[in-house]
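*Target chain*
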Amino acid sequence: MNQIVFDGAMAARLDAVYGARDVLRRRRLVRAALAAEPGEHVLDIGCGPGFYAAELLDDVGPDGSVTGVDLSPQMLALASRRCAARPNAAFHLADAAALPFDNAAFDAVLGVQVLEYVRDTMAALVQMRRVLRPGGRLLLWAVDWSTVSWYSADPGRMRRVLRLWDEHLAHPALTRRLAAVLCGAGFEEVGFEGHVFVSTELTPEAYAGAILPLIEQYCAVRSGLDAAEAKLWASEQRQLAERGEFFFACVQFCFTARRPA
C-alpha cells in the first residue's frame, strides 16, 4: 500500500474539496444518520479539516462537545482554526487503533472514509467500541471502489488507473465485509445503506471532478503507470466532458451500529 501523504499541500486541496456539492450532500446524509442531539459528546475519527466537527457543534449545542482526531498535523491545524471560536471543540493527533480517551467517553463516534486506510480494522473497531458509552452510536462511511463505473474509450488504461488508485488504501472494498466485522467487534443493531453518486459532468462540484486531480497526481508517481499516461488519462476525461460523453458512478455506504447497553 502506498498511501497518500496528507501534508500541507494535500490538506489545502482537500479543504477546498469539502465545499463541493457532492461532498456537501454526503455531510448532510452523515449528519442525518448520526442524529446528534443537544448535550451529546461526539468523536470524529479522521476529522480532516474539521467540516464535520464544525457542523456537529451546531447539533450538540453549547452543552455538548465534538472531539476530532487525525494522523495529519496539517489537517488538525485546519480543523482547529475552523472551530477556534468554539470552546467545546478539541482536536488530537491520534491513531484510530489507539484512541487516547477514557472508556465510555462518547455518546457517538463517526468515521468518514477512515477505516479504508486502517490496516487492522478489528483493532480500530474495538477502540471505537471501548470509548463509546453503553448504547452509544457508531457511524462509518466508506466508498466501495469496486463499484466504480467510469467511462473511457481506453478501458485498459482506465483499469490500470483504478488498480493503482486502489493501492493507496488498505481496504478498497471494505464494505463487503464491514457488517460482519462490526458484529465480530461486539456491536449490535448493525445496519447499512448505499448511496449512489453519479455524474455526467466533470465539475469540481461532483465527486468525480473533486477526486480526478488527486488520482492523476497519485498515479503519475506510481510504478505501473508513468506521468505521461496519467496525464493522457486525465486529458481524455476532460475531452469527454467537453463532448458531453463523461460518465462516473460509484456506491458509497453508510454503516450504523450501537455498543450494547
User: Anything to note?
Assistant: The beta strands are 41-45, 65-70, 89-93, 106-112, 132-150, 188-199, 248-258. The radius of gyration is 19 Å. The longest helix spans residues 227-242. The chain has nine helices and seven strands.
